[in-house]
Amino acid sequence: MTDGTALETGKQKIKVAMALAHDYDEATAEVADEQDALAAEAPSWAICAKDFRVVCEFSFDEAAEMRRQLKDRIARVNTLCEKGVTLAHQAHKAACAVRAFLRDPYIAAEKILGEEMDRHEDEQRRKQEDEHRRLEADARKREADRRKAAAEDLRAQGQTEAAKELIEAPTPPPLVIPQPKTAVESEGVSYRTTWSARVVDKPKFFAFLGQNPALQHLGDGNTKELNRMATSQKQAMNIPGVEAVVRRSSNVRR
Fold it and tell me: Where are the domains of the chain?
């Protein structure tokens, strides 16, 4: 559908909605006086019914007659309102169609821009995480080189056993390098972080489940439970073969 055709279609939807709204106004105006009379009479019937007591055959017959009159009024209300209800329903559908026609292009455009912003934010996060891993690897290499050089110095001094102990000593924990803030700062933009779980190595995952009977339910395609665990544990999630995945989505405040 071309832009011109879409515009004409939209204009036609607006005309239909306006025409139905006009028809509704006319239909309700035609029966307004009788509706007012029924509305004015209704409370007295409610009071009468509440206070009425069937105590004999005569009052029983009187109650039956009152019910027949009430049913007549119910039928009359339905008849009076039927056209208005039908037109109101049609007008509501037409108005919703107009709203969709006017609003949907904006929603689609906003979604496209949101996805592009999220793509850029994800790309920046990946770059920063790669840089973070590179810095940690460099730090580990520098530490290994330092220990190797120190061990060589010890050997040169004849301290062979000390050099051996230094080389075989447990590797110290990696240096903690502050993780940079990944979200792009912009006025009026906020971010929502969601976590989910992804099985990346099925053999390893199922082997883990085989060793942990209490977690067998996770192997029944229970993605919902894995996602719940990822949301709760985040980076600390530690299930072999399963990766915790984080996604950040942006929102722009008006």
Answer: 3-118, 188-254
